[in-house]
Design brief:
Chains A, B: It comes from Vitis vinifera (Grape). The structure is a homodimer. Chain A is of the alpha+beta class. Chain A is built from five helices and four strands; from the N terminus they run αααββαββα. The termini of chain A are far apart. Chain A binds a DNA duplex through helix 1 and helix 2.
Chain lengths: 246, 246
DNA sequence: ATCCCCACGTGTCGAA
DNA sequence: TTCGACACGTGGGGAT
């Protein structure tokens, strides 16, 4: 490259392609390995600070010179643009954990892995916040005293009806403030042909836990196993659906 | 561009720079607006499927022709590479939510916003999993079954120790399959100077819920309120930490 | 000595 | 017209 005419207007680093480029290149490759934290770049483009071709009075062949200047300016602008891109690539790469960009070093590989990484991040956030929401909801409608399984947290009702020694154990856990009054629970239970044998209420960490044991009233304990199971299942549905309709 | 010599070897789309480029350009800009889901690209480069210059026997000026062919091949390869980059950019962009890439449309802006977005994602994950870990730790050292405050829902432990009519109610919920055997629970309880008054086990949604009521053995019910509270608190820690060490 | 990748300078198109 | 952005073709350097 012949140096063109060394115009006064041009500034900064004039292009020295053969040598300088090699250096830039090398530098660039190095910067890929280091962790770069350049997020707060001045965003809007401010290339081309030149004054606007200075109201060209003058000879006719200034036209030629002007054209060359424009080209040089353009060239520099493009160079700066490329540099910015390189910096952006680097900062992008510095964000992606090393196990993603395996052995590969090319920019396209990096971007590809970045895409995968972003997907992974999104999935992870989705998973985490799903779990969180589930727990939150569970603690709001609040029912199951026991945490069920960690993977699939059930949207379960706050009422469990289970067989017990005497007959049926109904466990109701409810919020302390806005919760279900005990009287309501009891009235529902008695309306289901249950005679309540014992009833205890405990406050567990701000939750009320009403535990009642009842005998099933019809047939006076003549509960064959099958019918018992059926009744129980039936009762579960009825009781919980009734009580849950606050 | 004069068409060079139309060599037989060249294939596919020969470059038609003036027109074709415009079309490509347009097409590319369009593809930026749509949502592209191209993550499963064949990753390793497979440009340049040409046969290897076919063992060049022949005239001396085949050298010239060969050189030109190489250039054309190179040109095509580069074009493909650029296309791939464009696709990657597009798929990157399609992952970043719209509020990030404000009005800007340039590739560097997109990458810049991508960087910010990744940072945001990482922060969010950090926050979420921090909360989660905190809750987990909290639930390991302490022992609440019920979620206390609605914002921080506990990944709660399986043991609660609460006052009850008779004395102390210990509730242990455990997994059905890999869980804590009841005998283990009972042995821990008896080792804590608790005489078990009643014990019931129910299965709730695949979880075993062991509910035991015990009297505190020393002082035989001479539990002043304060000492009772202290004992209870003490018991909570000891029992849950013991039992939880499965 | 082939392939791959990168940076370069340039032409050009669309929008201020 | 000017300016920003993109695709292009090309040279060169570094791998395998």
């Amino acid at each position: 490259m012949f140096p063109l005419d060394p115009t006064d207007e041009l500034f900064q680093f004039t292009s020295l392609p053969s040598q300088q480029n090699a250096i830039q290149h090398q530098d660039n490759k190095l910067s890929f390995t280091t962790c770069i934290d350049t997020a707060h770049l001045p965003r809007k483009r401010n290339y081309s600070r030149q004054r606007k071709s200075s109201a060209f009075v003058g000879d006719k062949d200034d036209y030629r010179s002007d054209k060359k200047k424009r080209k040089m300016i353009h060239r520099d602008v493009e160079r700066q643009r490329r540099q910015e891109m390189a910096v952006l690539y680097a900062s992008l790469r510095s964000l992606v954990p090393n196990e993603y960009l395996k052995v590969t070093r090319s920019v396209s590989d990096h971007i590809y892995e970045t895409v995968n990484y972003i997907r992974h991040l999104q999935d992870k956030i989705q998973e985490l916040s799903d779990k969180r929401d589930c727990l939150k909801k569970l603690s709001n409608t609040s029912n199951n005293v026991a945490p069920d399984c960690p993977t699939s947290c059930l949207e379960c009702s706050c009422v469990t009806v289970e067989p017990c020694w005497a007959g049926v154990e109904v466990l109701v856990s409810t919020g302390f403030t806005q919760g279900l009054p005990l009287s309501r629970v009891l009235s529902v239970l008695t309306s289901e042909d249950l005679s309540i044998v014992s009833c205890s209420s405990t406050k567990v960490n701000g939750m009320l836990l009403h535990s009642t044991e009842s005998e099933v009233n019809d047939g006076a304990g003549a509960s064959m196993y099958l019918s018992y199971r059926r009744k129980l299942a039936d009762l579960k549905v009825k009781t919980s659906s009734k009580i849950l309709k606050w």
